[in-house]
Amino acid sequence: MSWFAFVAGGGNYTMVIEPFACAGGQNGAQFGIYEDCTFTNSIYCQSQPCVTGPQYLPSTLFTPGQVYFLWMDGCAASVCSYDIEIQGDFQQYQVPEIVDIECSSSIGRCDTICPNNTITFDARQDYDNLTSKFDWRVVKPSGTEVFITTADRFLEYTFTERGDYTVELNNIDVKCSLPIQPYAINVVVVDSLSGFCSSSDTCHVTVFDTIYTTIIDTNFIDVPRFISVTDTLIINLNVPNSSNDLVINKISIYPNPSNSHIFIDMGTYTLLKNYELQILNALGQPVYFTPIEQQLYYIDLNQWGEGNLFCSHKK
Question: Residue 310 — very low, low, confident or very high, per pLDDT cuts 50/70/90?
């Protein structure tokens, strides 16, 4: 038995398979064409009666770009020679050019996003029936290139660095196909001054226990968000390190409540060198501010009298 794999082309053509000079057995041949090597899905199969003349397979049996497997054998120990010919208008398969790459994300857009968001890219339905691999290239803001191969038309990628990314589908690997023109789109991961990554507009939340709250450095808060607690306030602040990767820095404010003083522990304060600490009164007016240049701050509350004070870390 002989096996041949081929990629169907386009056009209006006919595949002609003809056995000849058969000897022995039943002086004939048998053959079939399958979509895989397991004899599962056949598009053509002729074993009984034995084939003794040319067989004509129209192009309408084939999907352009699909890989097919042709097997051929003699009938009952026959030994045959074969001719395989393509007649008519045969065109080498060309992967369709990329018209657009659609994308989706949890924030409903893809051109501008916040750090650590994931985007799903979709090369669209034109490639659903292809037996192929999709080769993607991602260029990070640092210039580092990441090469990813997917088995279908989708790519999921999480963006961690701030700056401009390029996401490119540079090849759709179909055997025997002509190369495609790469298609690229741009994604911008914004910083904290962009005004894009907005938090909800909750203005005041009171919690009667130690509270852990996570604040993303890229959040630009249009409506002030204040959280009051009656115990130690612990803030997990996500800030970029020297490699521009987001890390958690824990900030603690205690004792609370207090009528004399508070301590503010900045954790790894070197990560906050571009930040300043502000304390606001009930009218939202700054009564204290300082660049963050040390780990522990002692704040004397006696100078402001009784009332609520609000702590802010501002970049």
Answer: low
